[in-house]
Description:
The protein is mostly helical and 325 residues long.
Amino acid sequence: MSLSVSDSHGGYQPDNPITIPPLYFWPPKPLKTLHWLLTGLLFPWGFLFILISVLSWNYLTPGTEKMASFEFSWIAQIWLRNAALLMLVAGGLHWWLYIRRTQERSYKYNSNWLATGRKKFLWSNQVKDNMFWSIASGCTVWTLYEAFTHWLYASGYVQQVEWSESPVYLVLMIIGVFFWSTFHFYLNHRLLHWKPLYELAHELHHRNVNTGPWTGISMHPLEHIIYFSLFALWWIVPVHPVIVLLTGIYQGISPSVSHSGFDQIELGKNKRVTAGDQFHNLHHKYFEVNYGNTPTPMDRLFGSWHDGTPEAHKVMKDRRRLDQY
């Protein structure tokens, strides 16, 4: 097993504190920013999601003419594709990390395995519960947003931008998906922590203190409606359908990686790939910190940033004490 630093629960904790990306350094650090964009933001998972989006548009999406009118058949086709992609990524990670247990608890944030026999989950089983909400509700809401967006483009209500016309613009929009998603996530996540919405909807997701790949979009249907509403940007800002697809794939599938429960995945001797998001894992542990993501560090701006250090933990506890008075 790999060496790891353990917290009081026996889980892995990265040695280095979580820092803001070089993009936000002042004075600017262009070379460090470029390196972060390519290796921190996009490699490897971002590039994988872009590739999946290109392949999905070319081989797994109904033709534009067909999508110009609402029909159950092509919307169902999109649902099946989205569900299959989620099964491939979330199911593959779950099989590798939790069924096969290839690396046992190495790099696992929480030393416990996923819950069984717990009545707060459907069928008293965390994985089955998470799969149900992710597929039945998550894939359905994701598909409806995507299908409506495709219909707007296919019907001519929004002008499709072609790669031959504006390649630079579209490349920037591809990168922009990652920033739009994380900015949008902070806003909707803070909204969902408003007590009435938390108790009505968001509490379902937060039952998962110890997360796994299927936890990613295991949410209440109302939360799914809010979470996937980022598609609405493309109802105003014209892009190519590949970017529409990337929006859904990144929003729908990347949480399987960030919620995997493992900081890194071991692929062989001395070969690892980054996986879980320690920043968001701390949110699942403590609830009142790290509402967003590091690519758009809104938590740093609004004082809810927890970098994983004892100093940051003390600040959080002191703030809780003050809130009690």
